[in-house]
Amino acid sequence: MSDISFHDLSALDADRRASLLRRAETDLSVFVEKVRPIIEAVRTEGDAALLRFAREFDKAEVADGGLKVSEAEFGAAFDKVEKDVVESIRFGIENIRHFHEEQRPETMWLKEVRPGAYAGDRYTPIASVALYVPRGKGAFPSVTMMTSVPAVIAGVPQIAIVTPPTSDGSVDAATLVAARLAGVETVYKCGGAQAVAAVAYGTETVKPAVKIVGPGSPWVVAAKSLLSSVINTGLPAGPSEAIIFADDSVDGGLAALDLLIEAEHGPDSSAYLVTHSRKVAEAALAALPQHWSRMSEQRVEFSRAVLTGKRGGIVLTASLEDSYRFINDYAPEHLEILSTEPFAHLGHITEAAEILMGPHTPVTLANFVLGPNAVLPTSRWARTYGPLSVTDFVKRSSVGYVTSAAYPELAQHARRLARYEGFSSHENAVSEIRSQYLSV
What we know:
This protein is α/β, with parallel strands linked by helices and 440 residues long. Helices cover 44% and strands 16% of the residues. The strands form 3 sheets. The chain has a 6-stranded parallel beta sheet, with helices on both faces. A 4-stranded parallel beta sheet has the order 6-5-4-7, with helices on both faces. Strands 2-3-13 form a 3-stranded antiparallel beta sheet, with no helix packed on it. The radius of gyration is 25 Å and the shape is globular.
């Protein structure tokens, strides 16, 4: 297995170490230039551009007038998906719903900051949101579950899914099942940069939204970047990435098994096993061929491309502290702590969007059924963003209420500060001028 990328961290200079932190979407310049004409075509041509791009990019024939999934298509989806898969989708949605219901903020709170003066927050749903569900390298009803459930819990009145069509012009049946079970009624057959443009500007069929969330390829990320002044593009969610951190209490074969989870998403994914144990690293290398023998040909191709390339493989560190430092510098989307004592490591790690602890908590569980959201910030954005949540679908307004008894004291201090900063109208609004009006 000498072709697997093996990085001895202690032997790398600063530039080579920094190169390990780069993701597929780090340089979007080539995508941005290709995406510009796509966005402009959708803005000016609407549905006609979406139908043309479906043929050109997705190799799909979508009928004129068929961009929106019909009620008949929803009904047929339940007949196409095996009953045990529908059962698992229901199971996952139930857990995701339980988790996200705990995140729902109270509608409004007020605190008395001074006698008779109150301040607080009020939360209201965003008016409209588009949920992006990718399709290029597989079908992802799980993304539908993760994006739909918190939006529904938040009470967003206009929710729509955008997802690339299959070659026959349909939408993946399990995605439609997940949408309906989560409570979403509207699904549009468009993906890629053109879908982002469609929900930003609107077309004859696609209603515009004020926000779009969901993971996507560098094409989608580039489109979001260009359209960020038109539509709120949410947390940065690009190609999959993971770090499997293993100490010497676990078998390297188990680490290799989990290393392949996110690596199989596609060649633009990133996946590292990080360990200070050479024994674990060597065992992982030895186990990979056996694990690959049990995978489909396409997923082997994808994961091998990642693990033999510039954004994956095995990182051997000199110590636990060096492992912690590398993980925090990388700020991964997914992090597994493979250890019989995972809580001993948790306090040392501050930069990760998702932290899954112990040998019984592989990324697979969190991606589908555990409950926490699997739409996560990528490309080191875990340093400032968290996972998708109910709060991504609501907006917060500050609320203030001052009684006549509390007003004089607050006005006195505000007047002094307004005068110091040189704002006459601010000062006048809390001066004797106001008092004259209030006394009438």
